[in-house]
Amino acid sequence: MASSIRGRGGIGPALPLLTPAYLWLAVAIFLPLSAMALFSFMTDLPMSGRDWSLTLEHYAAFFSSGLYVTLLWASVRLGLEVTLWCAVIGFPAAYVLARVLKGRAREAIFLLVILPFWSNGLVRIFSWAMVLREGGLLDTTLNAILPFRVNIDLMYSYPAVIIGLVHSYVPYMVLTCYLTLQAIDNALIEAARSLGASRLQTLRRVVLPLAMPGLLAGSVLIFVPVVGSFMEPRILGGRTGTFYGTVIEDQFVAVFNWPLGAALSFILLAVVLVILSLAAPILRRVR
User: Coiled-coil ranges per the record (predicted)?
Assistant: First the structure.
């Protein structure tokens, strides 16, 4: 009887449902990653028709050139700054959605939050280019309102890159924080208030600790892709938008040096995994 129950609850019945997903992951993720890992150790691409051999020179190029290390650190700093701004903007928005708004008002604001997911990334970036450039929407609006003339030209600057990336990724922070904030029992907040805690103390001692899993999950979802981003830095940053991700893109698209680009990509992957592993004890303690 017990064995039949275990058999019913085992993985066997779930295999038909799991197989398509894991097969797709194997084909779409692990197979390309394996090919890129092999390319990173090659002197040349096998499809070029030239002779090739295995080498470590592409990985050695990262450590021998201070430029790659500098750009990697700049990308990590960019990821941290964008994640911080997303938390500052996204957490209050998620709190209002989960604990303040109700009914149609919540639905309307929620729709505005997820609206960026419905548009192409390039459309969003070029829209910001129209807003931030000299004579753009922001410049024209401020000059129409203010009694004195201002010249707002943020294009091809570091703040423009930050603005574009925050706009693209802040919905992830809002959604993850919204899920954890909505799950908080109202009785806990009422108990804190009945014990004399102010609104600020309740937020700091009750709400924030309980919402921390969503805040950290959103931070991971934002930090990882931002470190390797290249579209926003390329279009909105211009020459100041040269980061590690743009260099990798150049190796694949402009220089056609796929082995070096693959090696730089796996170094970035290793650095991100190291950062996440160092943060793992904090994540486990929060959960």
Answer: none
* Pairwise CA distance, residues 170 & 79, whole Å: 12
Residue with tokens 């890992």: 37
The list of the chain residues with pLDDT below 50 reads 1-7
Q: Which residues pair with 54 in a beta bridge?
A: 42
In this prediction, residue 76 carries a pLDDT of 94
In a domain, 225, yes or no: yes
End-to-end CA distance of the chain: 37
- Tell me whether residue 47 is in a domain: no
Instruction: Reduce the DSSP state of residue 42 to 3 states and report it.
Output: strand
In a domain, 39, yes or no: no
Q: Diameter of the chain by CA atoms?
A: 84
Alpha-carbon span 215 to 36, nearest angstrom: 33
Q: Round to whole Å and give the CA distance between 60 and 139.
A: 47
The DSSP line for 254-286 is: TS--HHHHHHHHHHHHHHHHHHHHHHHHHHHHH
Give domain status of residue 107, yes or no. yes
Q: How far is residue 270's CA from residue 172's CA, in Å, rounded to a whole number?
A: 23
**CA 94 – CA 113 distance, rounded (Å):** 10
Q: Give the domain extent around 86.
A: 67-286
